[in-house]
What we know:
The structure holds 2 protein chains of 2 kinds.
Chain A lengths: L4 E6 L5 H4 L2 H4 L5 H7 L9 H20 L13 E6 L13 E5 L6 E7 L2 E9 L3 E7 L7 E7 L5 H17 L6 E5 L5 E5 L2 E2 L4 E6 L2 E7 L1 H11 L1
Antiparallel strand pairs in A: 1-6, 2-4, 3-7, 4-5, 5-6, 7-12, 8-9, 9-10, 11-12
Chain B lengths: L2 H12 L6 H5 L16 H14 L5 H4 L5 H14 L2
Helix pairs in contact in B: 1-5
Amino acid sequence: MKSAGNDIVALAKIDKHRTCQYRFYSKILSCSEEALYHQPQFTEFLFEKFVWLLWSVKESAYKFLKRNSKDLIFSPLRIVVQHIEIPSVFLTVKSNENYWTVTNDEKTVYKGKLTYNGHTLYFRSKVSEAWIASVVNGDDNFENVHWGIRSINDDRYDNQSAKAREFLLNELNLLFTGSLRTEKNPVGYIEIIRNNMPIDIPVSISHDGMYVSYTFDLTCFHKMNNVRSA
Amino acid sequence: MDRKAILNELKKVIAPYTENKMLLDGINEDTDLIKDLKINSANLVDIIIDAESKYQIEIDFDAAEKMYNVGNCIDIIYEKMNQST
């Protein structure tokens, strides 16, 4: 399935006390997901962070699926994280949490699998002291999935949205020439317009508090170019 | 409590989670909490929890997923209040 979905949670905005209350987290986590937290690998991981990590995965999955199901409603308990593993190289981002971009980082990210209504999707997440960010993909190969996070100076909604788009376009402009802009599709997802034509690169943006994030998947673009050059 | 009274109280529940308080003055039953009021989706859970406390009701999973617009919120609160009386 061609799509993209991401999410970012600014940890400064969460209510730690409320997050740890059953009546709150039980609206986000199923019993099987709560059991994942009790694995030995999460011994030193704060529960409130675990809740928001799974939230970010689920919101990313919703955005990924929404592109092809326009009437889909976000319902966290219907999206079920089946498996999650911690990074093989455990690094909490400290020095670069104000600007971080990545492609195909398999060592410092959380990895896992989720299901929704017969679909199986895969995710990668990054956890810093200030934010939790996730991306979702239709298969477990994230080689062509680019994503990034950066801080902003003004957390008003309109500024967040503008800065997220700007960040996405700046990163795409490192790879593509020509005039790029974003346009919102009637379903609600963002398309990239290059020289006044939509290009086949699914993208997603997210913002929360003082952070914005993007993802784009170049798999379809590479396939098309390989076919053309063959 | 009728729908108009629930709407007036609901505005108070929503207010902490919307940046532009002016938008609240113009809300109606078709107002979408995320698209129109620019509420962060993560705060929808807060709104559900706050509504549960305010109206002394319990909003289950099936009802919670419908609470993305004002009309649906009023429907659910009205229904749950009548169940609990």
